[in-house]
């Protein structure tokens, strides 16, 4: 792939590990001390966020799903802020008013999401509409799952983005399950991407566990979006290793299916690629892991030691005050 | 020169679009067609397809598009064809528009306006005539305004476009033809400020939308019997102007609320509660409400006229409240 040097590959490796270790620590922590923010881990799906964020600029806007944990961090929200958000501390999202997995930050181009699945896709259309009206070429990247793909919001959003040629990149994280309901029960087509044809936009299927394949698809989609050629639907086939959330009453998925997907770990895959092509040695990759682990450890200590939001702030900032800079 | 409320909305949109390049108009059939009720007629000719454009018939995404573009610094004015269709996009309003500022702890705002015609009287049936303002007033994070004069149509629209928060701007269909003087220039009607349309000492009638005119008719009738009714036009449904309501009720000692929405859970209930909380000792009579019955808006004229609150009901109710004097 053009313009992809070893430094970028190592960054992707570091990012995926950061996402992985963050979520491992969150879920482990939750087992002994329940976190206020119930973990909905995307472990196993890290390549999607990493591959789609690498090429983004600071002014590009991402609209993550609640399972796109890594995208928040890769786009620029600190591990400390993320973790403090999961701990519902004053140093977290919106001073404890919002959860970390729905938070937004205009400084780094993360748009706050909704607890209503896929209800952020219409907002992504608005973000891209603003870019068009402002004659700018920033893009809106909206993530959603196979479950969310069935909501009417998705239909309306894809149609409007396509007919107005808006720079939205729709990233479907198809992990095969809408909570417990398998794809073949909730959806009559095998590939969500085929729906793109019905809206008059390209739809591509990529191996969502291959970060380089995701990156290549994203690169093409962003080029189209920035050129005013309209939206793209990228369907990333993947799998979540854990349940829907850490409060899953049961996991109905076959044990052998889970085990098979664990073998397709996106991080191990990139590690093997780096080692077998002589792009990095074991020691370098181990150092990256140690650095990432230290960052997450620090974030946990930070979250633990941060205070809760003061109760008197509960009803603050319901309405915006008039201001001139927006 | 007197102009209609419809013309006031159109002129104000044009003036603000000339002043602020961030303002744009979107909605179903709002461009060359001029809107199904012709409120945006002519804007497309002046401002072109980048500033005034038609959208797919997709209330959810067009509302989300208004929200998202507002978050990115634009000033969208979205038309929803009839207020009855706003519920299609209610998730976007309730869970996105209304909550963004809070979700960012004040670091984000959604400066959008959602315009929609509403109300009965045009024989358009149960899906085109509802008064849903109380549903929206129940949502913290949005503002709801309802002009009843051309002057306020301008003033409230300017205030709504310039407000950093999402504002639902409701236009009563039977008031589109109402004529009045409209001040030139930067005439802003503050959001959250009611207007006293008629002063009186015996009774306060708090009304909104089409019921303001009907309350004024009722007040004229009452005047013939020596009763001086004060008529308060809410203008803003959320946030309510508690001070003006309370000051008036403390002066007159009687409160009658009149609205076209169904009685149960209507904004009248909130107004009654505010007065009961803060001024119950000032009351010389129980609080009364004149409102539509709890049923859908009927189609046939004879039924719709029976459904819509009329001046005679206000007169009768007022006389009952002033019972001793009429005994």
What brief labels describe this structure?
heterodimer; A: 326 residues; alpha/beta; Rossmann fold; 5-stranded parallel beta sheet; two-stranded antiparallel ribbon; 12 helices; 7 strands; 44% helix; globular; B: 327 residues; 7-stranded mixed beta sheet; 5-stranded mixed beta sheet; 13 helices; 14 strands; 20% strand; oxidoreductase (chain A); PDH_E1_Alpha_Subunit (chain A)
Query: Architecture of chain A, CATH level 2?
Result: 3-Layer(aba) Sandwich
Strand content of chain A: 5-15%
**Quaternary structure state of the chains depicted:** heterodimer
Q: How many extended strands of chain B? A: 14
Order of helices and strands of chain B: EHEHEHEHHEHEHEEEEHEEHEHEHHH
What is the radius of gyration of chain A computed over CA atoms, rounded to a whole number of angstroms? 19 Å
Task: Give start-end ranges of low-pLDDT stretches of chain B.
Answer: none
Distance between the termini of chain A: 39 Å
Number of helices of chain A: 12
Describe the protein.
The complex is a heterodimer of chains A (326) and B (327). Chain A is 44% helix and 10% strand. Chain A has 326 residues and is of the alpha/beta class. Chain A has a single domain (6-307), classed as Rossmann fold (3-Layer(aba) Sandwich), CATH 3.40.50.970. Chain A has a five-stranded parallel β-sheet, sandwiched between helices. In chain A, strands 4-5 form a two-stranded antiparallel sheet. In chain A, strand 2 (140-145), helix 6 (152-163) and strand 3 form a beta-alpha-beta unit. In chain A, helix 1 packs across helix 3 (69-75), helix 2 runs parallel beside helix 9 and helix 4 crosses helix 12. The termini of chain A are far apart. The model of chain A has no long low-confidence stretch (mean pLDDT 96). Chain B is α/β, with parallel strands linked by helices. Chain B folds into two domains: 2-181, Thiamin diphosphate (ThDP)-binding fold, Pyr/PP domains (Rossmann fold, 3-Layer(aba) Sandwich); 195-326, Rossmann fold, CATH 3.40.50. Chain B contains 13 helices and 14 strands. Chain B has helices at residues 5-19, 43-47, 59-71, 90-97, 100-103, 133-137, 150-162, 210-224, 242-252, 267-279, 301-307, 311-321, 323-326, and strands at residues 2-4, 23-27, 52-54, 75-79, 113-118, 143-145, 167-172, 179-181, 195-198, 203-207, 229-233, 236-238, 255-262, 288-292. At the A-B interface, helix 5 and helix 6 of A face helix 3, helix 4 and helix 5 of B. Chain A: InterPro entries: DH_E1, PDH_E1_Alpha_Subunit, THDP-binding. Chain A: It catalyses: N(6)-[(R)-lipoyl]-L-lysyl-[protein] + pyruvate + H(+) = N(6)-[(R)-S(8)-acetyldihydrolipoyl]-L-lysyl-[protein] + CO2. Chain A: It holds the Pfam family E1_dh. Chain A: Its cofactor is thiamine diphosphate. Chain A: Keywords: Oxidoreductase, Thiamine pyrophosphate.
